[in-house]
Design brief:
By secondary structure, the chain is mainly alpha-helical. It has helices at residues 3-22, 40-54, 61-88, 94-108, 112-121, 126-150, 155-164, 166-169; strands spanning 29-33, 36-39. The chain has a two-stranded antiparallel sheet with strand order 1-2.
Length: 190
Amino acid sequence: MTSISRLIFLLSFLLLLTVSAQAEVVNRVAAVVENNIVTTWQLEQKVDGFLKEKGLPMPSGERLAALRARVLEGLIEESLVEQRIDELGLKVQDAEVEAAIRDVQRQNKITREQLTAALEAQGMSFERYQENLRKQILQFRLIAREVRSKVDVTTAEIREYFKENIENYRQKPKVTLRHFSVPLKVEGEE
């Protein structure tokens, strides 16, 4: 190896070392949610999106920290919901999403073109809107399934509750008159 080659190699190595020493970590782990990771990049994207959607300036100090904490909590909740949906194998068919879109159109008395234009005015593509609807339907299904499994009340449990609380349901009989008619005799009539 010639001295010029060594010099170029050494300079290249030093340049590479300098560049990597100046590199800044821009993506860290913000939270670990069971099998998923929420990164600081995802968090910042959500914070920026929230502020843009609301038309608010970037806060500083404690307000920014509080906003990040709230958004992170939402990302964690979202991740848990998605994981539970995957565990249960819940799915939404394209026809169901389309039916939901037609329902939105019917309720708002608008056409597909008007809906698309309104979405674009808000900075949302029609495809993203469809995906959001799909997520909402999945979340409703998850909630219904989770709640239904915990609220299964048998007829025997209802009877038992009624027996234990029968005094709360006993009332003295009463009659309420809402209409009272009395035939009147008009003079001259018999």
